[in-house]
């Protein structure tokens, strides 16, 4: 069995890159301090305001439910197609970027949903969505009755 006759070198720690980074950070903060001192010397008093948030919050999207028998509800209140157009037109006049979510019954006639979508378009609604339920793997899609 051979014996070790020479000793291994001890690992050394090179501090040069760490010292370079420390000097760069010192220079960065010194320059940043100079800029803030120059701003204070301008002598300009900017106006002050209270942080009260937005003037008015954006309204939530309107929800339209279309039932199997053709009934229509706008935010859980029954409406006809003409009432739907007038209420949505008023909402668009108040907030032009308002959105609408149409939820139709899976077993209902698509004509009812199409009429609601046409009413939304007539009222000037530009953000429309149709609610669906995602079927996970292994589930059967219910058939129309």
- Proportion of strand residues: 5-15%
Low-confidence stretches: none
The CATH top-level class label of the domain at 62-130: Alpha Beta
Q: What's the N-to-C terminus distance?
A: 88 Å
Large-scale geometry: elongated
The mean pLDDT is: 82
According to DSSP, the number of beta strands is: 5
Q: Helix fraction? A: 25-40%
Instruction: Indicate the structural class.
Output: alpha/beta
Largest sheet: 5 strands, mixed
The radius of gyration over CA amounts to 34 Å
Strand order of the largest sheet: 3-2-1-4-5
Order of helices and strands: HEEEHEHE
Number of helices: 3
CATH topology of the domain at 62-130: Nucleotidyltransferase, domain 5
CATH architecture of the domain at 62-130: 2-Layer Sandwich
List keywords for this structure.
elongated; 5-stranded mixed β-sheet; 14% strand; Nucleotidyltransferase, domain 5; single chain; 37% helix; 145 residues; alpha/beta
Question: How would you briefly describe this protein structure?
Answer:
This protein is of the alpha/beta class. It has helices at about 15-40, 80-95, 110-125, and strands at about 60-65, 70-75, 75-80, 100-105, 125-130.
Topology:
Elements: H1 16-40, E1 62-66, E2 72-74, E3 77-79, H2 81-94, E4 99-104, H3 110-123, E5 127-130
Parallel strand pairs: 1-4, 4-5
Antiparallel strand pairs: 1-2, 2-3
Q: What do you see in this structure?
A:
By secondary structure, the protein is of the alpha/beta class. The protein has a domain of 69 residues: Nucleotidyltransferase, domain 5 (2-Layer Sandwich), CATH 3.30.420. The protein is built from three helices and five strands, in the order αβββαβαβ. Strand 1 and strand 2 form a beta hairpin. Helix 2 packs parallel to helix 3. The model has no long low-confidence stretch (mean pLDDT 82).
